[in-house]
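sorry to bug you again but im stuck and you know this stuff better than me. what follows is a protein written twice so to speak, once as letters and once as structure tokens for the fold. mainly i need to know what kind of three dimensional shape the backbone takes. anything you notice is useful, everything is just below:
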Amino acid sequence: MAVLEADPREKKARSVRTPAAAGGLSQAERREARSPVRWVLLTVLFVVMAVPLYLLVVNSFKSQDDILNNPFSLVPGRMTFAHLSAAIHSPQYNVIGGYGFTLFLVVAVDVLCIVFAGPAAYAIARSMKRRTQLVMLYFLAGTFIPGAAVIIPVIYVLRDLGLANTVTGLIAHDVASTLPVSIFLFVGFIRTIPVDIDQAATIDGAGRYRTFWTIIFPLMRPAVVTVLILNSIGIWNDFISPQILLSPSSGHYTVTTAIYAGISQYSTDMTKVFPNLLLAVAPVVIFFLYMQRHIISGLTVGAVKG
């Protein structure tokens, strides 16, 4: 019986590939990981992002003089929780009270955004008609328009609809502003789902609407979680929309507008500003740190097919 030997060139190629495969990284990737430029850039980025957070946390427990004279100092013996406690119980700033209204706003906008963006993205992703792609470009154009640039026209539109200075008008504006990015992410994810699933559902007698909500939507969990996280953080940190669309006479304050309402026009007490800012950003920072892996997985899933 004849024994077939492997081509020497194939043996050489395997011997060359084996060390890289065993190490998990190619030589180019290893050189990039050891590159000093990369570490310098990462260090600079870390400092730029960490220093403001450090100043916020440290100065939340200092007196006015220590904040103004030594903002970067960290002296445990001179730090106190009195200012943070005063910020929690202060009726002037009412940041804790703003938690409830802001959370209601986040939930309402997220639910309505999913209800509208999901079916729209499904219709766009499953249709190759030219007019459907034009609709996609229309939504995509909304991502390039700054929100502050349209806030004045929005006021006139809400006034004509009778929704000016109302919570309903603010929710409608926030939903409309979150739809472009949500639809864009949903469309990209739905296109990675095989069309055969839709055809099988049709054979079983399911309509388009039922197919989406019972079959396609559960498969969109990574994209849905990503959209919910991004929208929630954006709404929580938004200041311009609630400040302009809801006047003080409405009696509703979000976390950001509650802080602004308590800051004096002529003088600023840093022992009130820093603790209240810490109370405002702490929930969203903790939320982001806990959910960041879902953001990364939701943005990258479906990027590589095969």
Q: What stands out?
A: Residues 95-125 form the longest helix (31 residues). Residues 1-6, 11-22, 302-306 have pLDDT under 50 and may be disordered. The CA atoms of residues 19 and 25 lie 9 Å apart. Residues 91-300 form a domain with the MetI-like fold fold (CATH 1.10.3720.10).
